[in-house]
Design brief:
Blueprint: H1 9-17, E1 21-27, E2 39-45, H2 49-58
Antiparallel strand pairs: 1-2
Length: 59
């Protein structure tokens, strides 16, 4: 891995245990008003506020 690359597999695995949706290499253009943006290494969509809190604590 290069200096700017990060292994998000542990975070993604944890997020899945909270019920969150996890997608690798998700184009951010799908989630922005102007439909621009490259791929996110990992895109996590929490199921609810509790899931978001757990994931935030992990980070």
């Amino acid at each position: 891995m290069g200096a700017l690359e990060t292994d998000f597999s542990a975070l993604a695995s944890f997020a899945l245990t909270t019920g969150a949706d996890v997608v690798f290499n998700e184009p951010m253009s799908k989630h922005t008003t102007f439909q621009i943006g490259g791929p996110a290494a990992v895109f996590i969509r929490p199921e609810d506020e509790e899931s978001l809190q757990k994931i935030s604590t992990y980070c």
